[in-house]
Amino acid sequence: MLSIGLRSGGQTYLPTAAVGATGEVKPGIGGAGALDLRYSFYGDLSNNFELGFGLGVGFGYGTTALKGTSTDTYSNTDYLGNQMDYTVTSKFKQQDKFAKIDLALLCAMRFGGVTLNIGPRLMMPISATRSFTIHEANIDAYYPTYNVHVVNQLITGKLETPYTQASPSYLPTYHLLLGMELGYEWSLNNTNAIGVQAYADIAVWSSSITYPLSSDPLIQVAPITNADNPVPTVEVGSIEAFVSHQRYVGFGLRAYYAFSMGPASSKKKYFRSGRDTYYHRNRYYR
Predict the structure, then answer these.
(1) Across the strands, what pairs with 86?
(2) What H or E segment, with its residue span, contains residue 253?
């Protein structure tokens, strides 16, 4: 059987916090869609059960997201030498957009019209882009000498929100996924079929990520050194240091159209075998 289908659903990365991370990161669900091409072969094990394999390739596009909060504390000085103790908090969201290619080798089963496929997929993200947005930021500068808090003022540091910046996308180059598909298939005129399946993919192994590590705070306020222009520079970093590992997860629905291959007699047998007991009772009389 050769089939062409569409996969549509959601995907995300499940993050694992890095040791010493000063922020909390949670997964955000993004959308995903893919064109799915597949060749499947089945053999009869009984009147109603067929077992075989499926070879597939998919081409898709989608998004994933990470969101969370950060809290950083550090000390600076102003141009008069006064100590400034900073507490900086923020809420952020990081979004990746990427195309992907996946290759699948699945164990394929059919019981009547019920279908079940399970097996490994090799998924490769390509052409990834990333955007990083800080939705809320509070910069609290405390002067212990005077017991004074200055919050979100230009003279001690202020970040206008929402703040958005583009940044390099650091995603694993390869994912080895465990995929499962469960659904139902309807035969059309004994030679073609349509089907719908729910699918779920989870990474059991991912290639390592190489990116520049930094111990700098997510929002860094520079010391105030210029008396003529006492406005400190505010720089925004990245959340790579918050996450030590990301596990890919995808889910959704697959709808497909399938047609059998080979001579007409084998096509007829292929789609009726395991579904039509009349064929089995009378196969020696034809």
Answers:
(1) 74, 141
(2) strand 243-259
Q: Which residues contact 226 (CB under 8 A, 6 or more apart)?
A: 79
By CB atoms closer than 10 A (0-12, 13-18, 19+), residue 119 is middle
The three-state secondary structure class of 67 is: strand
Phi, psi of 174 (to 5 degrees): -135, 145
The whole-number pLDDT of residue 214 equals 67
- Cα–Cα distance between 90 and 110 in angstroms, integer? 51
Quick: pLDDT tens for 16-44: 887 777 788 999 999 999 999 999 998 88
Q: How far is the C-alpha of 13 from the C-alpha of 64, rounded, in Å?
A: 7
Model pTM score? 0.84
Query: What angle (nearest 5°) sits at the alpha carbon of residue 36, between those of residues 33 and 41?
Result: 150
